[in-house]
Amino acid sequence: MVKIRKAEVADAPILAAAEAKIAETAGYLVSRPDEITPDAFTTKIADLSQHPRGLYIVALLEDKIVAHAMLDPMSLSALAHIVRLNIFVYPEFQRQRIGQTIMDYLLTWAKQTPGVEKIELLVRATNKPAIALYEKIGFFEEGRFKKRLKLPDGSYIDDLAMALFVD
């Protein structure tokens, strides 16, 4: 049974290590492994824990963190109704409905949070399972960023911009 809880600053090294491991596979993340630091996670977790429209969570199986996600509010007044979604289900735990559980939690939270009207995300155009999950939930494609991610071998991957209006 997957448990969800708010991320804590003490989780930062675990989350950074997990993302660095994911980033070893070219094209999964924009960041390269050496660009991922626990300090950045510490700052983001602390910032979102203080923001009324921000949320950083972790998913646990048997007390082990197996995924993390955040809804990060836009800072400008004209964009304050939008949160940006980032979700990371660690590779060995994918296709076990953990992503669905996290998304259900985030959407429930967003619907209950004043001021959150829209969720946006970017997803690699090659990540068919994630796109299928987002579409199943109700996200729609808003655009495509061509050749957004340049891989070490010189090839490119497009990113899809997707969104969901919170009702």
Termini gap:
28 Å
Q: Which strand-content bin applies to the residues?
A: 25-35%
Helix content: 25-40%
How many domain modules?
1
CATH homologous superfamily designation: Gcn5-related N-acetyltransferase (GNAT)
Order of helices and strands: EHHEEEHEHEE
Shape verdict: globular
CATH architecture call: 3-Layer(aba) Sandwich
Average per-residue pLDDT, rounded, comes to 92
Outline the low-pLDDT stretches: none
| Alpha carbon gyration radius | 15 Å
Task: Kindly name the structural category.
Answer: alpha+beta
CATH topology descriptor:
Aminopeptidase
Largest sheet: 7 strands, mixed
Number of helices: 4
CATH class: Alpha Beta
Give short descriptive properties of this protein.
30% helix; 167 residues; Aminopeptidase; 7-stranded mixed beta sheet; alpha+beta
Write the SSE topology.
Blueprint: E1 3-6, H1 12-23, H2 38-50, E2 55-61, E3 64-73, E4 82-89, H3 98-112, E5 118-124, H4 128-137, E6 140-150, E7 156-165
Parallel strand pairs: 4-5
Antiparallel strand pairs: 1-2, 2-3, 3-4, 5-7, 6-7
Helix pairs in contact: 1-2
Description:
The protein has 167 residues and is α+β, with helices and mostly antiparallel strands. The chain is 30% helix and 34% strand. The protein contains four helices and seven strands, in the order βααβββαβαββ. It has helices at 12-23, 38-50, 98-112, 128-137; strands spanning 3-6, 55-61, 64-73, 82-89, 118-124, 140-150, 156-165. A seven-stranded mixed sheet has the order 1-2-3-4-5-7-6, sandwiched between helices. Helix 1 (12-23) packs across helix 2 (38-50). The longest helix has 15 residues, at 98-112. The radius of gyration is 15 Å and the shape is globular.
